Amino acid sequence: MSELLALLRDYTLQNVMAGAALLGLISGVLGSFAVLRRQSLLGDTMSHAALPGVCLGFLIAGGRHLGSILAGALITGSLAALLMLLLTRMSRLKTDAALGIALSTFFALGVVLLTHIQGMNNAAQGGLDAFLFGQAAATLRSDVWIMAGVTALALALVAALWKEFKLVTFDAEFAASLGMPVVWLEVLLTVMIALAVVVGLQMVGVVLMAAMVIAPAVAARQWSRRLEGMVGLAAAIGVVGGVAGALLSALSRGLATGPLIILSVSGMVLVSIGLAPGRGLVWEALRLWRGRRRLREQQVLTTLYRLAAHHADPVFRSEQGLLDTYHGLGTRTALRKLERRGLVAWGEAPPGEPGPPRRWLLTPAGRLEAERVLAAIDGEGD
């Protein structure tokens, strides 16, 4: 415990944890809108398109000045997103094709600029390629304040335009019919997602930033059916995942912070997909198992009913082996469950009739239930 407290007092770790928390906060909030607008690849495009901006910011500032680098990344990331919007609106290209064009074009330009900088023999270029995968340990207190300012600006815009963003996200055509500037609102949302990407360049880098934008929102979507709850939960998941990744990196002594942040958030996504009530894979598997069991019980019940109807005897007694043969597997479990529900019962075989002495028959409640099930099946057939 004392070692952990001593570790938390470390200046570098404090900066990294603060930066990771800010990154998770802005990614969770803005990523929710990207996921709901079915633009999950937008974060990937913007993060790769930020690379030429990083290089241009370095060239203009003459060194690794974070403000200039982030400004350049914001400009090129926003340009890539606007290019995607332009291509989808002015041509027949689908969104995924436009995103692919913007991503490959801007990232190729970034690689060319990065190669050019590496050939300049400028001592200040050292570590510039760390923006590809992030270098959280290099985060300074001044960097954290810049990230905090960007995050505060984005959250303020979301709060001020909450109703407009909500309507544009779920029904852009209705928003346009109300006279809202839908195009400008979409552009603003896109630029704000670029802000989230810019905040994460120092922490997780160009390559991994796409996952940070999308993962918290995907996890939150499994737990919440309302936008308000989803955005708040996504922000919380992003913060927890970011801080957890930073702590794991500090405790492991050697493992990179950015990938651990992504793995932490991704772990929450897996847990959410598996366990979220009503949507998780575990609950879905349980629901399917219950459905199969209920279907088997209904099949056995209606078989008893049809046999009774065929013999014109409402209390016709059916042998266990006959039911097993008819359904091709053991029916004892289904019959026991029907018996506990009071739908079937054991009955004595008629005197002198060969076969087992005890057999299954429908109770009055069972006949009513079988008639209801058959009526429902006939109704679906119609």
UniProtKB/TrEMBL annotation:
Superkingdom field: Bacteria
Give any Pfam family that matches: ABC-3
UniProt keywords, alphabetically: Cell membrane, Membrane, Transmembrane, Transmembrane helix, Transport
Q: How does it sit in the membrane?
A: Multi-pass membrane protein
Where is this chain's protein located in or outside the cell?
Cell membrane
Q: Does the keyword Nucleotide-binding apply?
A: no
Query: InterPro entries this protein is in?
Result: ABC_BtuC-like (IPR037294), ABC_TroCD (IPR001626)
- Give the UniProt family note: Belongs to the ABC-3 integral membrane protein family.
What name does this protein carry?
Answer: Metal ABC transporter permease
Q: What is the lineage of its organism?
A: Bacteria, Pseudomonadati, Pseudomonadota, Gammaproteobacteria, Oceanospirillales
